[in-house]
């Protein structure tokens, strides 16, 4: 998402990508690209199986207090319907920003 233009109110300037810990505001210009991306993701995930397995962060298994810790990537399971419902809402929001006087406010993690 580093190529989506938004406004960073903390710096009082436009930038590309979202503010990781603070606010980012998507206005009309950034909404056009955001909308295209969300529509593309919607089409892609609509072809996924009912249960989508995504690769998460690398984690360490320390259950046995073994000095040779074994790590692995966590597996994230999410239902396709949940992903598509969320993407539909984001598409609706982006469409309203693009056609009306609205903004999307992202509040970071």
Structural commentary:
The protein has 109 residues and is of the alpha+beta class. The protein has one domain (5-106). It has helices at 28-45, 80-99; strands spanning 5-8, 13-16, 24-26, 51-61, 70-79, 104-106. Helix 1 runs antiparallel to helix 2. The two termini are 15 Å apart. The model has no long low-confidence stretch (mean pLDDT 91).
Task: Give the SSE map.
Elements: E1 5-8, E2 13-16, E3 24-26, H1 28-45, E4 51-61, E5 70-79, H2 80-99, E6 104-106
Antiparallel strand pairs: 1-2, 3-6, 4-5
Helix pairs in contact: 1-2
Measure the end-to-end span.
15 Å
Gyration radius over CA: 18 Å
Q: Let me know the largest β-sheet.
A: 2 strands, antiparallel
Strand content bin: 25-35%
In helices, the fraction of residues equals: 25-40%
Low-pLDDT stretches are none
Number of strands: 6
Mean pLDDT: 91
Number of helical elements: 2
Order of SSEs: EEEHEEHE
Shape category: flat
- How many separate domains? 1
The largest sheet has its strands arranged as 1-2
* Broad structural category: alpha+beta
